[in-house]
Amino acid sequence: MGTNTADTVGSGVGAWDPADATGTSAATDTAGTAGAEDAEDAADAADRLRLDLLGPVGAHRGEAPLDLGPVRRQAVLAALVLRAETLVTHQQLLDDVWGPEPPGTGRRVLPSYVYPLRKALDAPGTGPAASAIRGERGGYRFVPGQARTDIGELAGQSAAARRAKAAGDLTTALDGCTRALNLFRGEPLAGLPGPFADAERQRLARQRRTLHQERTECLVLLGRYTEALDELLAAPAARPHDEPLAALRIRALYGSGRQTEALAAYQETRDRLRGELGLEPGEELRRVHQGVLRRDDLMLLGRAPLPRTAGSDAAQAPAPPSAPTLASAPEPPLPPPRPRRNELPGDTAWLVGRETELALLTTPVPPGSVSVAAVDGTAGVGKTALVVRAAWTLHDQYPDGCLFVDLHAHGVPHGSLRPQRALHRLIRAVHGADGELTDELDELVTAWRAATSSLRLLLVVDDARSAEQVRPLLPAGPGSRVLVAGRQRLPGLDADRRLTVEPLGTGEAVTLLTHLLGEARAEQEPEAAQELARRCGGLPLALRITGARLQNRPSWTLAHLVGRMSDDERRLGELRAEDRSVEAAFRMSYDQLTPDLQRVFRALGQSPTAEFDGLTPAVMLGRSRQDTEDLLERLVDASLLQQPRLSRYRLHDLVRDHTRRLAAAVPEETAADRAAVLHLYTAAGRIASDWGPEGFPTGPDVSHSPSRTGRTPTHGWTPQAANCST
């Protein structure tokens, strides 16, 4: 197709010339080459030919318009002008203008188009040898210097703008982009037929979009954010998938103090790209998004951070970066940036067997929303250690801070932290001590959301007991993440990830013990180490207490401590070290239960099997099976009861020990529970035996469904149900 003018304004820039930065440069009359207008004598200008292609094609000599004839003749002229200095062959001209349907007479038709163009463009008396369109062997050539073109001015203004921007003179660059854009009078080469005109229209449209992009970036770097946003709205033929324009919009919104809208704009663009094209945003758009999350003013706005308020614009914007001058005054010192706050507790030295859980908690989350992960598990299973490790893994991704709040739901009686007190702490952590804060929950929640709406925070909420405690604490900033840990499952909390932390397997428990005791000591008694891990039930709290006791008793062997823990009634007493106690941790969970649930919990320790359904406790409680299963499900939510499969329950070994110690304090109740279980199992054996329900040689009469004197009969009892309980 020959040599075209520059396609984009953003191409490479040569060395900076001070004259270029002021918008003056050497004039060039060559169509399609860079140059700016020379000052001309008025007499010469009055006779000068001018061609306009950045709109409907037109020509003037001085002020007088010239008739170029039909659009196909204009297309021939455009093909020659846009390839100035290049010989355009007859065949190439036919292909450019007629495409796959050339005229029947072939190249013989071309003189009928070229002759009228010469007659219109050349001054009176001009011969063929001096014509603007020269005929040569095999084709035609448009002669440089015969006409000034808006295409040439466009190239000159664009090049000057590029050089000024590269030199740091943003004001001159903005002015150059504006003058270049003003040359467009509509769609370039409007109405011209042929493949060449179509291709050039697309190229010039791209160049126009690039000029808009360059001009908008100058406005952003100059701090004129509102104008930049207006420019983006006025951009011609703005495509919905144009990532550079989307990036500029995000930068302009951010510069205006509208960080939330900037993040939403990114998410909107990302959703459109993924939904309509199946693509993720490109590297530049992702880099801008990360800059917004990090509040990177230098990368986004070309300057160091300064305080911004919503709606700030040119009046608040700092002077743009410019080329250095000898007389430049020293810049005032910038205010110190707000320190990044990190309240996370120290990470544990050894976190064993939690790779899968950690991967789930640290998985990337949608950047435009607040992500909530809820972690639950029985007392001493290592929930806090897990979420703290996850928080430390993620903390670099949260430039506005990492906050930690302990709600003390299982601390001293009535000592749990109210949402109001937690919000006081959090608001002061973000904004410092700003005087007295209200104690009205609704007002505090509003203040907290306003304070965090432009921040990307990581918040860890530990020892939560209810969704009602947690909801007011959720930050509002897009991209923030909340990790909630507690013994109680929180179905009322909208969480996108939920995780129940289970006790460690025997191998993982031995690994933790080995870390605590040292390989030499643990490997001396491998079998005792395994038994000790089993006696601790895989609970990290129990393992750490055991490790601490052995560290403080170097004369003890592991087998010795196993022997002390071999008695189930004594085992919990051995798992105590100063104020750390497995039994105390369980007791705190028990104390939070309602009286009905406490009664169920005490009864579960009397079940003769490790795993059971709802029938056995229903018989002990004298309740219907459905009511009993509802109570059991609430104990599952409290992490005091495990549910290995549908409608089947089991107690952790150490929890079972605790239930029996609690039951021992109410001997009459315990005796009645044991009698009820005996009655149930006797009935089950009698019904299942070969003798039949009335032929069992010993025991009470169980020819009817089992019930206890003075208690409501258990509904839904069947021989099959009885068999399932054994």
Automatic annotation (TrEMBL):
PANTHER family the record matches: TRANSCRIPTIONAL REGULATOR REDD, TRANSCRIPTIONAL REGULATOR REDD-RELATED
Family to which the UniProt record says this protein belongs: Belongs to the AfsR/DnrI/RedD regulatory family.
Annotated ranges, domain OmpR/PhoB-type: 40-144
Protein name listed in UniProt: BTAD domain-containing putative transcriptional regulator
Segments of this protein annotated with the region Disordered: 1-42, 305-346, 691-726
Keywords on record: DNA-binding, Transcription, Transcription regulation, Two-component regulatory system
Bias (Polar residues) ranges: 704-726
Domain of life: Bacteria
InterPro entries given in the database record: AfsR-DnrI-RedD_regulator, Apaf_helical, BTAD, OmpR/PhoB-type_DNA-bd, P-loop_NTPase, Sig_transdc_resp-reg_C-effctor, TPR-like_helical_dom_sf, WH-like_DNA-bd_sf
Biased composition (Low complexity): 19-36
DNA-binding region: 40-144
Organism annotation: Streptomyces sanglieri
